[in-house]
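Technical annex B. To support the medicinal chemistry partners, we prepared a structural model of the target in complex with adenosine monophosphate, based solely on the information shown next.
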Amino acid sequence: MSEGLQAPRGTLDWLPPRSAARRAMIDRFREIFERAGYGEAMTPVFEDTSLFARTAGESSEVVGKEMYVFEDQGGRSLALRPEFTAAMVRAYLEHGLSREPLPVRLWSAGSCYRYAAVQRGRYREFTQVNAEAIGSDDPAVDAELIALQLEWFTSLGLAGLELRLNTIGDPTDRGPYLERLRAYLDAHLDDLDGEVRRQRDLNPLRAFDTKVPTSAAIMAGAPKITDHVSLAAAEHFATVRAFLDARGIEYTLDPTLVRGLDYYSRTTWEVSWPALGAQSGIGGGGRYDGLAAAIGGAPTPGVGFACGVERVLLALEEQGRSPAPATPTDVFFAVVAGAARPRLHALMDEARRAGLTCEADLAGRGFKGQLKQASRIGAAWTVLCGDDEWARGSSLVRDMTTGEQSEVPLDLLVGHLRATITGWTDAA
Ligand code: AMP
């Protein structure tokens, strides 16, 4: 594997056994969201570049520096999706989902691409799970999404998470505030890093996203958007909090949490697992009432979030949790009599159809090697068939824990295994 899109060696979430963990995490996400009325949306891996440029904003780091952009044979500029939200709202508008009962609730899981400096927890191809509720400005929706997101983390066994919450009001209310913020930035310009200085003209709110410690310290003293939002936005926020409080969800109010994308309005939140250090953000979301209009649709409120599966997996592993305990093998078929193999493999298929997890030697191992393999994969039972057993039309079934074994005619083998392992018999 060349240096490039994927995770560095050692963190191969894409191959067994770790791939089972990511699959289990996504399955859990699906269960939780489908129970709450969310349906799966599968949007394309690439979209018109302009979709992301118009919504995330040219000045954002994701669009400005991190997008994989290419031209297709027809001369169109396309981008690998850096996130899901814009694509979900595009799909909502393009496919007339506004005619469905609102809000339309969608979830999705898949790869996203950002040209980021690869490090632990930060990859160029990574997996996001996300959920969006489009078409309602009810603060109960914001709170429900936060609650469902936390439920996913909790169901995976993650503890010690931090939820930070803020409101950034509506873009229409921001004029006078942005003037004050610019004046503050101007007063500290010499001490701010180059990126923040650049944002002063492009999108001053984004100065709060700085990761440079000296700039962050200065931004801690800057006037906060939260103190300048309209009454309607403040009421919305109070209601979101009431819905969270009623659920007993704890959070910290963080007036510097503005998130990096232009289309956010009102509620913003981020979930982190602080022990992950620089890449502690495991999920973030917000309301984006301006997004649909920004891509040419009718003004439509919306709210959603995304979580990075690889980072959540890292956090789980650091806490000693596995979202997917390996499926134990029920039976290993150690068939030494060559002539017996076809019949025993057919019986193995039958046992699998009966719900048992079965494997056989596929590498020409001798008797000892096959038994060793059975122990290595943790098989609970081994079916042994040597020349003598084959001549008698039977096999030995060995309990790998006690070493006890009994002879079972091949005609009765599958029924015997099923009854022994699952307790289920034909007569039952
Ligand atoms: P964002 O859209 O930047 O808020 O990202 C949402 C979530 O995706 C973050 O909280 C991370 O968990 C995850 N994420 C973002 N960028 C990356 C990346 N380059 N590698 C791995 N995970 C990422």
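Notes passed to the chemistry partners:
Residues 7-170+229-318 form a domain with the BirA Bifunctional Protein; domain 2 fold (CATH 3.30.930.10).
Residues 83, 114, 116, 121-123, 126, 128, 281-284, 306-308, 310-311 surround adenosine monophosphate (CB under 6 Å).
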